[in-house]
Structures are given as structure tokens and as C-alpha cells.
Amino acid sequence: MKAIIYCRVSTAKETQETSLARQEEELLALAKSKGMEVVKVIKEQASGYDLERDGVLELLSLIKDEEITSVLIQDETRIGRGNAKIALLHCITKEGVKLYSISHHGELQLSESDSMVLQIVSMVEEYQRKLHNIKIKRGMQRAIKQGYHPERNLKNQGEHAGRERKLAPITEIVRLRENGLTFAEIAATLRGFGYQVSKATVHRRYQEYKESVEEQMIAGNQPAKE
């Protein structure tokens, strides 16, 4: 099992420096007792109420690696405090990563209240996903009803389509916009067909298209140079 050790103290005082070293030593011992391979030790001095921490952001990035199965901490307050703690616990556990702590001599046992809050957060996130999928489905249906034919209009569907399909197809953006779809609906529709675009990207590309058309019209109306 591959694991990451995360140590945190709240201030830069000398006594806290000692605490960081002690946390690392104890967590390395815990990892050894559990037969874990420690691939990274993260240590930082920051408030537990702060989400914008270099160490914790690195941790969240690393656990997306499928080989990381565990995160070792002194106790749950080292991850964070207050709402920040709940948010980070959710981010870690939803990746299927287990938390181990010194205070529990093994896998972290959350309090009943924390467990309940995490269950609620997971339920809300699941319903958000469902609503997102419904929005994509309805956007696609509306686009097709308005005369959108993806089988004819979408290009780059061959074996080399992967990278190019991420580009926003301006022809289809303009077509859907003229059919009355909002930028959010256009983005949702294109994502349903494999284009990884956001509402902001669609809006930007449409504005760039309009500016380009206006420039061409202006240039076309200019008198020819002698």
C-alpha cells in the first residue's frame, strides 16, 4: 500500500517545529507497522481554517493517483478545522483513500456528527451530478428540436478525434445561439457530444466570432487604396 504522510502546525514557533518533526516520526512508525510504503511526506505551517495551503493542495493532487491508498495524519484536526476540515475530509474520502491517525492507532474513526455531515455532502453532490446530466440531456434535446444534426455537423469523429474534439466548434456555437440557446445550454450540449467546453469558453468564442465578422464588414466597406 502506498501512503502519504501529512503533518501540520498552525504557527512558525520553534515549539511547533518540534511538533512537526514528532508528527513525522510517529507517522513513519505507523506506516511501517501497517506495511505501507510512504511515497511523500508533506509538512506545513498554516491555519487549519485555511483551504489555500500549498501542502494540502499538493495532497489533493497526489491522491488522484490510483496507487495512493492511504493518508496518515496525527489526528483529524491536522487536516483542517471547522468547515475546512469537512470539505477536505470529503475530498479525500471520495477518492477512495483511507485516513489513518496516531490518535486512533489505525484507521481514522470520525465522530457521529462529522459522519452525518459527510453523508449529507455526498448526497448533495450526487444530486448536483444528476441535475447536471439532466441539463445536458435537455440541452441536447432542445438543440436537435431546433434543427441541430450532430451526426452531420460535428467533425473530427474519427480515430484521431481525441485532441481536436476539445476545441469549441464555432459553426455549431453560432448555429445553436441563433436557435435561441443560452451559452450555458450550448456548453452543456457540446459536452454531451464530447467537446470539453465551459459556458465561459462558448461565450468567448462567440464574441470572438462576432468581432471577426464586424472587422470583415468594416474592411469590406473601406475604399480601395489608390
Task: Characterize the structure shown.
57% of the residues lie in helices and 13% in strands. It is α/β, with parallel strands linked by helices and 226 residues long. It contains ten helices and five strands. It has two domains: 2-110, 3-Layer(aba) Sandwich (Rossmann fold); 128-221, no CATH class. It has a five-stranded mixed sheet, with helices on both faces. Helix 4 packs across helix 5 (112-145), helix 5 crosses helix 9 (183-192) and helix 9 packs across helix 10 (199-221).
Number of domains: 2
Overall shape: it is elongated
Overall strand count = 5
Give the ordered list of helices and strands.
EHEHEHHEEHHHHHH
**Class per helix and strand makeup:** alpha/beta
The neighbouring-strand order within the major sheet is 2-1-3-4-5
Based on the coordinates given, report the CATH architecture of the largest domain. 3-Layer(aba) Sandwich
What's the CATH topology label of the largest domain?
A: Rossmann fold
Provide the CATH superfamily of the largest domain.
Resolvase, N-terminal catalytic domain
Overall pLDDT: 82
| Largest sheet, strands/sense/barrel | 5 strands, mixed
CATH class of the largest domain: Alpha Beta
**Helix share, percent:** 55-70%
Give the C-alpha Rg.
26 Å
Number of helices: 10
Percent strand: 5-15%
- pLDDT < 50 runs, ≥5 residues: 155-166
End-to-end separation in angstroms reads 77 Å
